[in-house]
Amino acid sequence: MRVKISHQEGMKFEAKTENSSFIIDCPVISPVEYFLAGIISCSATDLILVPKNQGYEVTHLEVGGDVVRNEDMPRKFNTLHLEYSFNSSAEDELAARWVMASIETYCSTLNTIRGVTKLTYSVVHNDIIIKDNAEIISGEPISTDFGAIDGCCPS
After folding, report:
1. Predicted structure pTM score
2. Residue-wise DSSP of 85-148
3. 8 A C-beta contact, residue 71 and residue 116
4. For 107, how many CA atoms within 13 A lie in the half-sphere containing its CB?
5. Residue 79 belongs to a domain with what CATH number?
6. Is 140's pLDDT higher than 70?
């Protein structure tokens, strides 16, 4: 994977990827906000694709993320709490496993910050809280094979 950033004017930059390009308009949207949005989007794609591969459809998906950063430089992410909310016809236990599959295995962006950022998550499935402020304890991803998925995030 390769990304090239070129300065446009003022605080605008163009990001060119192997497949597309987009404008980063600082300070309207900061690079840190793009980074967090990328992490959340990566996990959100898993929450569509993993159930789909198992014959389920997820609807009304929303994934939010709250970050606490260092006060001093470097202002790294100290904690990240992810909030997943979605509907499906699956049992709650299976829905919770989909979230864990994303966090523990599939989402490469989450696994990039794992071990340096405390990760917690909550899951609301069919308007019922099934996980509340659960912690990811290990610093390393688990090696459980949940199967291959095709998505927008290359491996």
Report:
1. 0.85
2. EEE-SS-HHHHHHHHHHIIIII-HHHHHHBTTBEEEEEEEETTEEEEEEEE---SS--------
3. no
4. 27
5. 3.30.300.20
6. no
